[in-house]
């Protein structure tokens, strides 16, 4: 691909990787070297590499220019790591209040303090009492309680802060009616004369968050029911009950000394649970050490003091101090905040890139950018792999940022686990999510829907990760419970990420060996429930998890398989699902030999036997008959019929014969009976059937006044024929201009000729290459240039970058590409804006760039679909010059709505209406055959200004009246249009013989009538176009039962004008001139309905006097114009 493009007399350049041979411009494709064939004959990997690199470059440039979105993808990992750091700090600051969350190798010795005031309890109600006791009718008990009050260290307790009761039942009754109003209660039982037993009753339940005391109906409410007291008393009796005996201090025991053995069982059952705690605004209050232990120690102290004094000993020598210390212990439990939260946070950070990728891929398809690249010969493999490569680089960056930010915040998760394990987990997850985005993009048609879809994925992902955080389904108890859910969770990349993050988090905070290393990524996970088997499998110095059912190594394998499988599935669904044009391939397309082996053939195969169609397609298999179809009652234009017959004869020569042996050389484009029909799918028909079944009983709503009636459902469900059989050819060095109103089939024809839309019937040869053959579209696209109806440009790229990307996709060498791009940009006057992003271009500049892209690579066939739309007159004229100069050596197909453009550029003009070619020939030929006659323009002496200006104006008006009167008398015509310079008269062909005499008279009487200039010309091409389009619309309206158009006049009357009539007269004698036009759908509409003067028959006003609207039926005749009445004009 080192050959340089050049131009010579009658030759077109050929790009060849081996030589630079030139071929004659008109040589056929088959049998001789040509540019497109030589490009495609190169090795596949050469084409793929050029396209892959240019598309990857495009993706990177677009991402770099889209700075906000790119920064968001980079900052997202930092933001979520910072958020995780804040959460981790908050939890770690609370952990020291819970001893089993921290290592404690040297516990401190703590002296038990005084009984606290009840008001200091976090959940106490007011009023409150420090403690209750019973019985209050025993002197020994009263002495002990008095000692507890008076000897409380640092804070003597007043008598008003305690309450005494005769019995335990009285205490329970008081507690039942006074919730959360005391710290505890003593139940003393004298044990003969030498001992005193007691039972301590406290409330150890946790109250509701944020409230002091219990709240009715809330979870965790502190209640003092008898049943709860029994449980608490039994629990405290097991742990804290104390006996004191002077005769034998060693006789004290910890068994329950219950008042009634039937109420409190003995001995104490098994291990007791850890004491409950109370939580308030992040602070923990342990009832054991807040009130229970001080109450117990105070009772023991005063019972001992009482018995000491009862024995006659000196109270001054009595000393009682109690201290406690917990056992030294490691961390017996942990809160794995990072391990639990990093999975959802990484998933949330990834979703920014997921949504951006999803919307970008859908946007390129929605806006036609991908189709524009395919028109340049882009391979699907290059498109998908370029996106995949770009996202793989983004995945590597994403994984490194996650690990880097996590290590910067000193998370054990990142410091204790292997870098290789962490990187692969995050990278493979990113890769799997990229393939998932590709897969979902095949189901989404709008880029705006990608954002909403991403939010749905976010909700589903977080739900799945929360479920996994609670142990389902990846625990020994749940793994086999619902096998179908295991499969579903395994197919979701975010579920696998959650499981891997959980294992990595648990390993990073383990009390023993920490972290999962590369060598143990699979061996750490062992599902062993037997303790003896665990002991045998234990490996010192290595982290192991005996409750693991899915290892990180297996998760890596699953993520890799999902990334590959989802990518292949995305490419497959992209081919078999309908694209924006409704085109799709067969589900078994990859099994067909034609998909892998592209044979070149220029021979048109013989027609096949008629295939059987499904019921909903059978009606579309046969072209409908009617007034607008070939072979119907409507006569075909003679030129169109002659061209069709010529093409039919040529088809016989082309059928079954190679072009190399054909006696007739091929034209640039040969179209044989091109047809295109759109049929409603089975789902559409089924939906209409349901709607008719369920809603058929609903009365029809009254339609708004003047509203066009909707088509019946039966008509909407019929096959729509966009092209009803077109036969024509396009010669090289010629420009074929295709005209027609909106909906006529122009763009559909262009789509069929460019291979975007496979035709329903017919054959197309482009330089002898069959468009429908295996690989024919690819070969034709290599010599084809397309300027689509709407600009397909990336706003982030400049004009020069567009030229570079499209040129490399087309296969141009870099040296030739630079020269061609610079020359084309200069030819369309964009050399000064070549480095400017197209997002800053005006509409006209974008159209000029699209024209330059279409001419890139010296294509042999160029399709320009309305190329000058939106341009200013100067730019339009300049582009016309570019197109005119581009005719040499190539064929150009142009569609436009500008009749002036078609008249100037078109060598051959074809006019389509209602899917059918209605006229064909040169502009002059069409004007002669379809024009209404001649346009005669007369210039009258202009008005003068000054003191006698009013008189001159009256004289000017009189002269104008004389000119009108003369033309009315001589030719029977009135001015079709007037302005300050000219009066334009349309002379019908029937008066053509009288024109020489009229012109002679005007030359003789010119000074008398004030005529200074006379111009005569054939009617414009616009008039020809409107005549043909109006005729086609009238035929269609007649077939559909639409006979007239409703007009609302300024005086309040309503008239129905027959379709196509230019002069109408009401029954009361008023005459009207009707000016017709077509709306965006191609339907005939009344533009103006101007009343004519009764005496002169000339228009009395040139302004629109009525508002048209269509009606579905004719108005009743014989009704005069009256306010709010309908009449037939």
Commentary on this structure:
The two termini are about 70 Å apart. The strands form nine sheets. The chain has a six-stranded mixed sheet, sandwiched between helices. The longest helix is centred in the N-terminal third of the chain and has 30 residues, at about 335-365. Helix 8 packs parallel to helix 12, helix 8 (about 335-365) packs antiparallel against helix 13 and helix 15 runs antiparallel to helix 17 (about 550-575). About 40% of the residues are buried. A hairpin with a 5-residue loop joins strand 29 and strand 30. About 40% of the residues lie in helices and about 15% in strands. The chain has about 1150 residues and is of the alpha+beta class. It has 33 helices and 32 strands.
In short:
With 1129 residues, the chain is an alpha+beta fold. The protein starts with 10 loop residues before the first strand and ends with a strand.
In terms of topology, how is this protein built?
Elements: E1 11-12, E2 23-24, H1 35-41, H2 44-65, H3 67-94, E3 110-111, E4 131-134, H4 139-150, E5 162-164, H5 168-177, E6 184-190, E7 195-202, H6 226-240, E8 242-245, E9 278-280, E10 283-285, H7 287-310, E11 323-324, H8 337-366, H9 369-375, H10 380-408, H11 412-416, H12 419-441, H13 447-469, H14 483-490, H15 493-508, H16 531-537, H17 552-576, H18 593-596, H19 615-621, H20 638-654, E12 669-678, H21 682-695, H22 713-716, E13 720-730, E14 735-739, H23 746-753, E15 761-766, E16 769-770, H24 776-781, E17 784-787, H25 799-810, H26 814-827, H27 843-854, E18 861-865, H28 873-885, E19 891-895, H29 899-905, E20 908-913, E21 916-921, H30 923-930, E22 933-940, H31 949-970, E23 975-978, E24 983-988, H32 995-1009, E25 1011-1018, H33 1021-1040, E26 1044-1049, E27 1054-1058, E28 1063-1065, E29 1071-1078, E30 1084-1091, E31 1106-1110, E32 1126-1128
Parallel strand pairs: 4-5, 4-6, 14-19, 14-20, 17-18, 18-19, 27-32
Antiparallel strand pairs: 1-2, 3-11, 6-7, 7-8, 9-10, 12-13, 12-15, 15-16, 20-21, 22-24, 22-25, 23-24, 26-27, 26-31, 28-29, 29-30
